[in-house]
Amino acid sequence: MARDWPTPARGRVSVPGYGVLSKPDSAGAVMAGVPDPEPPYLITGATGAVGAAVARALARERKPLVLWTRTRTGGQSVCETLRAEFPDVAVRLVDGDLGHMSSVRKTAAELELVCPRLGAIIHCAGVLTRLREETPEGLERMFATNHLGPFLLTRMLCERLERARPTRIVFVSAASAAPIHFEDLQSRRTFRALPAFASSKTAQLLFAFALARRFSSGPWTSNVFFPGVVRSGLLREAPWIVRAFSRAVGSAADRAGDSLAWVATAASLASANGQFFEGTRIGSTPDYVQDVGRQERLWEASERILSTTQGHAG
Q1: CA–CA dist 18, 24 (Å, integer)
Q2: Residue of 248 and 206 predicted with greater confidence
Q3: Do the beta carbons of residue 220 and residue 164 sit within 8 Å?
Q4: Predicted TM-score (pTM) of this structure
Q5: CA gyration radius for the chain?
């Protein structure tokens, strides 16, 4: 059953570096005398190939941007490049490690103060590790970064941002049907890099479609975007044959960025919800990720895991 999402509180808040900002009232209207500018587009993984490409595509359309990067140093060069090419576009940078839940909670709370609402949340962040790594909270890094972090961030923003106006959530993923091993979500018993990575992308799809069901009455939407094979740094730790294949058939990220920007902004897609976009066309997904029972089982398991990270300072 879809849960009721609380409405953000009224008021004005002061954020270091941004000054005093207005928060929406319970009716969704901005406070008297304050203009209602276009809400920014949040992009996670903004230093990656697809993340940087969609940021540039949105900047060409004069969309205000908030770029989420793991480190401020890494994101600064992307911001500077965009500001130099598009000086009239507002670009902000926030940093947080999506694999570290305390970092996600901290940055999401700060983001709420800066952005009372968002035009879209575009999840581009992803990681593939050759060896099993644990985060400071004891989470397997790929499952944490590719699923749990976006799950937590999206849930927090859904709960805290203005729900009366539309926001599109888009997950950059693939049509994965790799099974979810619910008895070993952290890959403690068995770890193989590519199957673990694929399972984390399956988890992303299950979450995206579970969200879409909860958004069935609007105005928020949740969709998935498959960029195709793109040359990027994501596969730097993949087996050499996978890297060679990617170099041979992969395309530059610009086209994927343009298509992703279209999915996030096109007026004709305002009501599109629960769709899997292959570029600019709607594709199909495996039955595995459309199973409602499996979606809910993962949702509940993710909540349980996140409860173990509460109060963890890392």
Answers
A1: 17
A2: 206
A3: no
A4: 0.85
A5: 19
Q: Say which CATH class 38-307 falls into.
A: alpha beta
Give me 98's structure tokens.
Answer: 């999506």
**Domain residue limits, the chain:** 38-307
pLDDT in tens, 2-38: 333 333 333 333 333 323 333 333 333 334 445 567 8
∠ CA 79-85-88, rounded to 5°? 85
Relative to beta strand 65-69, strand 281-283 is unpaired
